[in-house]
Every structure is written in C-alpha cells, then in structure tokens.
Amino acid sequence: MFKLAFFDAKSYDKPGFDRGIAGTDVKIKYFDTRLNEDTVSLARGFNGVCVFVSDTVSAPVVEKLVEYGVQVLLLRCAGFNNVDLAACEGRLPIFRVPAYSPYAVAEHAMAMLLTINRRTHKAYIRTKDFNFSLAGLEGFDLHGKTVGIIGTGKIGRIFARICNGFGMEILAYDKFPDASTGLNYVNLDEIFRRSDILSLHCPLTEETFHIVDAAAIAQMKKGVTILNTSRGALVDTDALIEGIKERRIGAACLDVYEEEGDLFYEDYSGHIVEDDTLVRLIAMPNVLVTSHQAFLTQEALGNIAQTTLDNLRAFRAGAPNPQTQVCLNR
Ligand code: NAD
Q1: Which atom of ligand 1 is nearest to the CA of 296?
Q2: 82 in ligand 1 pocket by Cβ < 6 Å?
Q3: Each residue of 30-89: pLDDT tens digit?
Q4: Backbone φ and ψ of 238, nearest 5°
C-alpha cells in the first residue's frame, strides 16, 4: 500500500485521481487544508505528498517531510516557484505536470476578451431581469484589430491561431522567437505601440516581472485591452489601475493577480476582502477578473491526474521520468 497525502484538495480534483488509482495499491487521503509549516504534521505516516501551486513547500516543510520518511513530492501543476528546490536536492525527488491543456488557457483568454468586449456578462444579468435595453453594451469588431502576443510557446501559439480565425492581425514578441511559427515577431516597444489587444503568455521570471509597467502602458494605444492569463506579477497592478483611470487602458481581463495568494480558489463571499487594490479592480466596469481558472477544463484535470499518477508509477518502478522530474539546475 502506497499512502499519498493530497493537500489543498478541491471537489474538482478528486474524480480524476480516484479514477486513476482504482484497482491499484495507491491510497489517497484528501486534505482540504494547504500544506505549510503549520499543517505539515498531517503528512506523518504517508509515503508521498501531492501539492498544488497554492501549497508552500519551504525548507522547514521539506525538513519535516524527509523526517517523516516521505519518499516523493508530486506537483499537480507546472510551476514550482512554491517549492524550495535546494532543500529537496538529493533528499526528496520532485515531479510535476509540465503541460495539461494549453487549449484550456488560450480558449479562456479568448472567452474573457469576447466577454469584456461584447458585454455578455452584463447582457446575461439584464435579460434575466427582462431588461432588453442595449444602452452601454456596444463593443468593437475583433476582425481587423491588431493583437500583440507576448510569449509564443504552447499557449501563445494556440491563442494566435484562435485570433487568426477571427481575422485579426497578429504581432508577436518572444525572448526566443521561433521562425517556424510564421508569426510576425517585433520588439517590445513596437508590440506595446501597435496592439489594440495585448495578451500575455510568457512565464514569470526576473526579466518578465512587471513587463507591463507604467512605461509600457504610456506607449500603448488609447483604449487598449490587456489580457493576462499567465502570472499576476507580469503586470504592475498599480500602473494598470492608473492606466485605466487615465482612460488609456480600455479594458483589462485578469485571470491572475499579483497578490492572488490567499484569495484565489477560496470563497470569500460574505467576507470583507482586505485587499483594496483587488477590490478597486473588481469595482471597475471595464475589468473582468476570474480566479486563476483558465486551466479548468475536464481535459486539463484528466491530464493533470494522469500525469501525476504516471509520475508516481515510474518513480516507484525505479524509472523516474526525466521530462517531468524537477531538478535544481534545470
Ligand atoms: P511555454 O513554456 O510553452 O511558453 C512560454 C514562452 O515564453 C516561450 O516561448 C518562451 O520562449 C517565452 N519566454 C520566456 N522568457 C520570455 C521573456 N523574457 N520574454 C518573452 N517571452 C519569454 O509555456 P506555456 O505552456 O505556453 O505557458 C505560458 C504561461 O501560461 C506559463 O508560464 C504560466 O505562467 C501560464 N499558465 C497559466 C495558467 C492559468 O490557469 N491561468 C495555466 C497554465 C499556464
């Protein structure tokens, strides 16, 4: 019997994992709580631990996991900035899910753009109340507009194909441009200057931190729509709010937010939310916020469960998958 402690478990996580372990000797205990220094003792007696981006695998947490005899850390996500890799090195093997559905994220980006532009979120509420007025619902044709895509990896390329289907002109920027994509690569200044819609699909690194800041916004076209389905800190939120107040930014669609940490994925309805910046953003009529849900499709959840359990099987068979193993120097 291999006992797996599954932290920050949500209702939508369980079906895929339960299906995946059916008929095997793996037993999963789902904990609603997040893994951190206060909750790590729950992992005592387990052979493996499974975590998400919202869990904190700091050095003291790793110390405890090793002390309890935990053999493997399974990340059911792509990112690992929440894990102290140095503390794990040589003591606690880590595996991740590098990709689960780039389509899910790219399609969500387009869903947000269509919603904010054509005001379907407002029309839905109006017609539910038998209010059939059209005042204030006008949008613009996407056809013929210029979309700037920053980061042309798996998700950015799919988003480009979707935009192509709408008849949009596509500009691209990537640190490592790939000519085989056939995309029209330009430099950052040009993409900021020429885009009617700007969509972020690059990872968060030291270089990309606040890639959309006050200086970038100052170059943008009046009325630009900004889409961020990548990582919150790619955008300087205070600068974004100023840009909206100055009417330079016409709309913003945010699936991620710099300070999303303790808020996103949880139900705070009925609470007073302390984050004034987020409250300000949500109160703006031309801002659409979703809580890091771009990945949330049946296909992505199925792939996450399958890859995580494949990682466990390969590890236990003594043949860990080098493609999914997280190493300090890679
Ligand atoms: P990917 O690795 O396939 O592509 C990332 C691209 O960004 C690459 O082409 C890379 O060359 C480029 N890049 C790297 N550094 C750059 C820089 N300094 N400037 C410009 N481009 C740079 O990744 P992906 O699967 O397409 O995912 C993109 C991002 O989407 C991820 O980093 C993650 O932050 C985000 N994401 C969000 C969700 C969600 O639910 N909202 C889910 C999955 C991924």
Answers
A1: 40
A2: no
A3: 999 999 999 999 999 999 999 998 899 999 999 999 999 999 999 999 888 889 999 999
A4: -65, -40
